[in-house]
Write a structure and sequence with these properties.
This protein has a single domain, classed as Porin (Beta Barrel). 10% of the residues lie in helices and 57% in strands. It is built from 4 helices and 21 strands. The chain is globular, with a radius of gyration of 27 Å. 17% of the residues are buried.
Length: 416
């Protein structure tokens, strides 16, 4: 057991450590760049759903089995995203920098309606008719550009022009289903139809070749990201960023359409399950025909990247970068889930900076309908810096804490 003298000694040591770190940077307000010239690499991968969690994976002996009867969700959602890139920056002064960058990124989401989930969980004992649809969206891009940051009095301006090329794009499909009950005859009619489209940088038709810059190559788009940060008070900074402001739209010129239809055997009529009475009298249950068809053409589609607006603040309780709190709120427009879709973004991060050598951060964030609870750790040895982030993710706030999704982020910086 630690006596009172030990507690006082520990308190003095802790106070002295905090005082030393505070005194070491008496004039530091904002954390500047760590190197004059640096090359960096970043990788971020994450996935999330609202069905199976890490506990289901680790407890499964051979395979993860989903029991729809035990699902506590009203609909089914699944999301995945990844991005990778590198950059070269030159930082002559703390508030002045410029450089180049390139990378790739992509994301996708699947959503199944509440009625379909209820049918899978409960069956159709209430003999009701249901109908619904499925939502699917995905996109991937390659990009390259320039970035610059410069001060104007108490302002810090950032500008990031870039060009991008879509690699593929899957718009929301027109897939639908309808389960119709006839109470008089006891028959069930199941109609399934529609299809999905995939636009790609090269033709997916067999024998078309792999020339991404040949006939029908995607057009290069351009957009602009810009931000402004203002030193409001000695302990407070506030800022605004606009990401992917459209300048020149891009397009994909190769389309593959996959259509699906469920019909009676050797017929174009909707599939019908005979009544129980007919089955008992000797009529056998016929199985449906799943008719699929894939077509290819050169239909063009204009593709824009999501436009984002973010407001943020940075608070330094001690007036230096030993500990900072960074809240932000924003909106995303034109996401992959539909042209008129708008999502609200939110984030709150706390970060500890020990002598600009050790960085520890905790954050909660909602970005384009995916929650992430993250822990980050970094080591800076001047010539080399390592960053690692681990996160739990989910399609809603509660599921992001119980392992329904995971994320990993890694970064490397080299320079002098």
């Amino acid at each position: 057991m630690v006596n009172n003298r030990g507690r006082r000694f520990f308190t003095v040591i802790l106070f002295a450590a905090v005082f030393f770190v505070t005194a070491a940077f008496p004039a530091a307000a904002q954390e500047g760049p760590h190197r004059i010239v640096e090359v960096g690499f970043d990788l971020d991968v994450a996935l999330a759903n609202n069905m199976a969690g890490l506990g289901d994976v680790f407890n499964a002996r051979k395979a993860v089995v989903l029991d729809f009867r035990k699902l506590r969700v009203t609909d089914i959602t699944a999301w995945a995203g990844a991005e990778a890139g590198f950059f070269v920056n030159v930082n002559p002064r703390d508030s002045l920098s410029f450089g180049v960058f390139a990378g790739v990124d992509g994301a996708g989401e699947l959503w199944l309606s509440q009625d379909l989930v209820r049918l899978l969980k409960e069956g159709n004992f209430r003999t009701r008719s249901i109908e619904g649809s499925m939502t699917l969206g995905a996109a991937a891009f390659a990009q390259a550009g320039l970035n610059a940051a410069f001060p104007i009095k108490k302002l810090r301006i950032t500008v990031r022009p870039e060009v991008y090329m879509p690699l593929f794009y899957i718009p929301p499909p027109d897939f639908s289903y309808a389960l119709t009950m006839d109470e008089d005859t006891g028959s069930i009619t199941l109609a399934v139809g529609g299809g999905a489209e995939l636009y790609s940088a090269m033709s997916l038709e067999e024998g078309a070749g792999m020339d991404i810059f040949g006939s029908g190559a995607p057009s290069i788009g351009a957009d602009l990201s810009a931000g402004v940060e203002y030193s409001l008070l000695p302990k407070w900074d506030v800022g605004l960023t606009l990401t992917h402001i459209p300048v020149v739209p891009s397009s994909l010129n190769h389309r593959a359409r996959i259509s699906l239809e469920l019909t009676k055997k050797d017929s174009d009529e909707p599939y019908q399950i005979d009544s129980i009475y007919d089955s008992l009298t000797g009529d056998s249950l016929t199985l449906p025909d799943f008719k699929t068809k894939t077509t290819y053409d050169d239909r063009s589609l204009t593709v824009l990247r999501p436009l984002r607006l973010d407001l943020f603040a940075e608070y330094r309780p001690l007036g230096i970068d030993l500990f900072t709190v960074r809240p932000n709120i924003g909106l995303s427009f034109l996401t992959i889930y539909g042209g008129s879709h708008i999502s609200v973004n939110f984030g709150l991060e706390g970060r500890i900076n020990l002598l600009r050598c050790i960085f520890i951060g905790l954050s909660t964030a909602l970005r384009e309908e995916v929650w992430r609870q993250s822990f980050s750790f970094g080591l800076n040895f001047r010539a080399v810096e390592f960053n690692l982030g681990l996160s739990l993710a989910g399609t809603d706030f509660l599921s992001s804490f119980n392992g329904k999704g995971v994320g990993v982020r890694a970064g490397l910086r080299l320079g002098y």
